[in-house]
Write a structure and sequence with these properties.
Chain A: InterPro entries: PDH/Transketolase, THDP-binding, Transketo_C/PFOR_II, Transketolase-like_Pyr-bd, Transketolase_C. The complex is a heterodimer. In chain A, 39% of the residues lie in helices and 19% in strands. In chain A, helix 8 links the parallel strand 8 and strand 9. Chain A is an alpha/beta fold. Chain A has 2 domains: 156 residues, Rossmann fold; 126 residues, 3-Layer(aba) Sandwich (Rossmann fold). Chain B is of the alpha/beta class. Chain B has 9 helices and 7 strands, in the order ααβααβαβββααβαβα. In chain B, the strands form 2 sheets. A 5-stranded parallel β-sheet of chain B has the order 1-2-3-7-6, sandwiched between helices. In chain B, helix 1 runs antiparallel to helix 2, helix 2 packs parallel to helix 3 and helix 2 crosses helix 8. Chain B is globular. Classes of the chains: A alpha/beta, B alpha/beta. Chains A and B meet through helix 3 and helix 5 of A and helix 4 and helix 5 of B.
């Protein structure tokens, strides 16, 4: 794998750069400045950094108070705790009160690997997207992480962003592409089937597209970096133009990207949809790649499902 | 506002809140009556606020962490002119913005509260911003005593002391009753003052239905430099209405027509005697 820079480091570097001009940007950590790669920010901008200790409810409440007073808080805390322990603060103090808090769930999905289900966050998209007014996002690679972080600084309102722990392979050549919150990126045009992925599974969908191309199948690939607000038009177009959809996500098969896509498809243009993700069980121990392979979140598996949908 | 005027105001607010609860047939009567003197002291005397400019940047902030006792707050905000007094009669009606908890769609309300254990953390964030940005405002956070069982209160207590937020004031409406009965039977809190002191707060214990004692405690802030203040306000749940005082089911009991009449008669008499006292000077 080429890239060795994890997305969390990109978040820090981007905020360091923007904080030069924007003194309202404030990073909060829950004893997580190391794991969030935020130590350089804490050092460079001590007045724009708040250590809260291991207290995830408190970190969100304090961030809401800071936001109410004009700061632009970025909470960097493990996704497994941030999206569960503090969900009521997210619902009430951020979404309901309408505070401008960015929640960055680090080490998300199954990236803590063998640490077990306590440290996995594969229900976060489901719970976050059910909260009115909360944007929900996952970047596909380091370039998108940069674009997303920049966009979030300028975005007024609450948002939950989940990033993984380890470096991920690039899906973009550079950060120079059109990124808009709420707009899917068409990574590949195609006519026979659409693969919709988010976060680190975008790379897998692109690999599947290459395998399908080898056997004469034209697959469209959508990077749904924003789960909410969802780009419904891109989904409807995919249903109308390709007739089949496969969703791929590092999340429970319940309530995440697949569910969000299916909600749109069944109501606006019903076509077959297959949902690939983590099944309804404590995920098996292992590296992300091993866990993905075990559950069929792989290019081979997507190819098989696509051929089956097409009737080959 | 002087002491007599404050006490008159508190009686008037109690009458108003009983009327809106009676009309809506819902509300947290006991808690609103217990916190009325605390809110009256803050809103009519202590806090720097401007009803014509609710977003004044250096205004003092009030966070009702015990959001359910909102009726006294609605009556005070209306009385001060944050919104028209007639709107009080929409309280809890279909589509109203005057719901059963603080709602920041209403001028004068900072944050939506109601889930217990949230307010102090928010207040810590506000107080920290005030310090770091040199805005100079104070933050007053009113908590219930039953609320003290929420672990998140103590996360925020730790942070308030850690960041030396002497512009932060926590207030515990210590009426010793919660919905199921005595706080000490439901989940023992005592010695609650020692708990707060051990968390690094400057603790002041006052009669929480005595506006003079409350004003003195609030105006002394920061009494200990570098420490947040906790005002342990010993109150009587249902205060001001003899037959509601210290009766657990008045937590959210709605007065009947007859109970309302009796309560208003008692409060009118109290108001009259305060007026006479005031005139004598």
């Amino acid at each position: 794998m080429g890239n060795t820079i994890p997305n969390r480091q990109v978040v820090c570097e981007t905020l360091l750069e923007l904080a030069k001009e924007d003194r309202a940007i404030t990073v909060l950590a829950s004893d997580s400045r190391g794991s969030a790669a935020m130590a350089p920010f804490a050092k460079a901008y001590p007045d724009q950094f708040v250590e809260v200790g291991i207290a995830e409810q408190n970190i969100v409440g304090i961030a809401a108070g800071l936001a109410h007073s004009g700061r632009k808080p970025f909470v960097a805390s493990p996704a497994c705790f941030l999206s569960m322990r503090s969900i009521e603060q997210i619902k009430v103090d951020v979404a309901y009160s309408g505070t401008n808090v960015k929640l960055v769930g680090i080490s998300g999905g199954v990236s803590y690997g063998a640490l077990g289900m306590s440290h996995h966050s594969v229900q976060d998209l489901a719970v976050a997207r059910a909260i009115p007014g909360l944007a929900v996002m996952m970047p596909a690679d380091r370039h998108e992480t940069k674009r997303m972080t920049e966009a979030l600084v300028g975005y007024e309102g609450g948002a939950y962003v989940r990033i993984g722990r380890n470096p991920v392979e690039d899906v973009y050549d550079s950060a120079d592409y059109e990124f808009t919150i709420g707009k899917a990126v068409t990574m590949k045009e195609g006519e026979d089937v659409t693969l919709i992925a988010t976060g680190e599974t975008v790379r897998i969908a692109l690999d599947a597209e290459a395998l399908l191309r080898e056997v004469g199948v034209s697959a469209r690939v959508l990077n749904m970096h924003t789960i909410k607000p969802l780009d419904e038009e891109a989904i409807v177009r995919a249903a109308e133009e390709t007739g089949r959809i496969i969703t791929v996500e590092e999340h429970s098969i319940h309530g995440g990207l697949g569910a969000a896509v299916a909600e749109v498809v069944v109501q606006r243009h019903p076509v077959p949809v297959r949902i690939l993700g983590i099944p309804d069980e404590p995920a098996i121990a292992g590296k992300t790649s091993e866990v993905f392979k075990h559950y069929g979140i792989s290019a081979d598996s997507i190819k098989r499902i696509a051929l089956d949908l097409i009737g080959r | 506002m002087n002491s007599n005027a404050l006490r008159q105001k508190a009686v008037q607010i109690r009458m108003d809140l009983l009327r809106i609860i009676h009309r809506a047939k819902t509300g947290h009567t006991g808690g609103s009556l217990s916190n009325t003197d605390i809110l009256t002291s803050l809103y009519y005397r202590v806090m720097r606020i401007d009803p014509s400019n609710p977003k004044l940047p250096d205004r003092d902030r009030f966070i009702a962490s015990k959001g359910h006792s909102v009726e006294s707050l609605w009556c005070i905000l209306a009385d001060l002119g944050f919104f028209p007094k007639e709107e009080l009669f929409t309280y809890s009606q279909f589509g109203t913005r005057l719901i059963g908890h603080p709602n920041n769609k209403v001028p004068g309300i900072e944050m939506n509260t109601g889930a217990l254990g949230h307010g102090l953390a928010i207040s810590v964030g506000m107080a920290l911003a005030s310090k770091r940005d040199g805005l100079g405002y104070r933050v007053f956070c009113l908590m219930g005593d039953g609320e003290q069982a929420e672990g998140s209160v103590w996360e925020a207590a730790m942070a308030g002391a850690h960041y030396k937020l002497d512009n932060l004031v926590g207030i515990v409406d210590r009426n010793r009753l919660q919905i199921s009965g005595s706080t000490e039977e439901v989940m023992g809190l005592d010695p609650l003052d020692e708990k707060w002191a051990s968390f690094g707060w400057h603790v002041v214990t006052v009669d929480g239905n005595d506006v003079d004692a409350l004003v003195s405690a609030f105006e002394a802030v920061p009494a200990a430099s570098g420490k947040p203040t906790l005002v342990m306000a010993n109150t009587v749940k249902g205060k001001g209405v003899s037959f509601a005082e210290n009766v657990p089911h008045w937590h959210h009991h709605v007065p009947s027509d007859e109970e309302l009449d009796r309560a208003l008669a008692e409060l009118s008499a109290a108001l009259e005697s305060l007026r006479q006292e005031g005139e004598k000077g």
